[in-house]
Design brief:
The structure is a homodimer.
Chain A (H helix, E strand, L loop, with lengths): L13 H22 L2 H8 L3 H5 L5 H13 L11 H16 L5 H13 L1 H28 L9 H7 L2 H9 L8 H12 L6
InterPro entries (chains A, B): Homeodomain-like_sf, HTH-type_TetR-like_transc_reg, HTH_TetR, Tet_transcr_reg_TetR-rel_C_sf, TetR_C
Keywords (chains A, B): DNA-binding, Transcription, Transcription regulation
Organism (chains A, B): Fodinicola feengrottensis
Amino acid sequence: MTRRTPSGAAVLQPEVTTAIVDAVFDELVDKGVGRLSMEGVAARAGVGKSALYRRWPSKDKMVMAVLADLSVPLAEITDTGSLRGDVRATVEAVTGWITHPKFRRVLADLIAEGERHPERAAAVVDAIGGPRREHAFATLRRAIDRGELPADVDLELAADLFAAPMYWRMIVRRGPVEDDYLDRVTEMILRALGATTC
Amino acid sequence: MTRRTPSGAAVLQPEVTTAIVDAVFDELVDKGVGRLSMEGVAARAGVGKSALYRRWPSKDKMVMAVLADLSVPLAEITDTGSLRGDVRATVEAVTGWITHPKFRRVLADLIAEGERHPERAAAVVDAIGGPRREHAFATLRRAIDRGELPADVDLELAADLFAAPMYWRMIVRRGPVEDDYLDRVTEMILRALGATTC
């Protein structure tokens, strides 16, 4: 019996991972991605820096992984059986994502930071935007298969519409999310895409 | 004859105003709205702080005025005679605004800053968003008068659509502005609004 972790198979304790993830979000809110440091995250999580490097090879990979692990699953929508239902679920899920208490302030910082460091912005788009859009495309392809959308629907523009109005309304304009705004956005998207059911 | 400016009627030299406005934008890009100072702007413009206070009563009022003077006129669209033409001109003008060399990085910072200081964000929305939207509403009302849009068209949602897709595409996703993207957005908006001419 030994108390040492076997060197060839590091055991990652889930509660340590959780503490680190929380610390990453808190540091992102306090300092922004530019000034976040491995030291700061480790200190806030109450762990050594080695605990971070055991999980991620670099600061940038750590931040991207933490943000993607929160963001990508939130774009996964259960098939409701209709395009209207799927779009409604999508715009609601997008709203939950961009107003997520952990994520809301981080997103605006990431975008501003992206203007200064395009390579960092490209990493965010690859790690978060790309996989999230694949979920949107899957939703749209289901609707094409059901005959609810024309086969040549503009997938890229449609995916933009699934997110852009809520971001503009809530984050740029800081407007209220009226009870029926998501309903109105849903109907607008159905019309915009030329849905047969609108 | 005296060389002193009459105290009751300060003469504001236009070339000084231009130098100050340029300095405000440069400071906004370098430091962000949070760390911009009257001292920094004055030094960069090569004028005394009194030249700033002669024009604006405070830092916040100065920044808002400078941003609004750039942003609001850019939302003014010449009546093209048709909704399709007006929407195409609007989405092109929005694109020019959010990618304006002086403004692009400032906008992302303003939004991020707005998450930290809601009262500052509200001032931006009042000084820029409100007047810009009035121009959008005027465009939409012209279309209603021409019979191109239903009288009960959702003006608020329509105004969001005039800007949101381009912001999402270019600033959040950092995607390319394909030659035909604005054409596709225009047709999408016409369908979304239930235009009689789409």
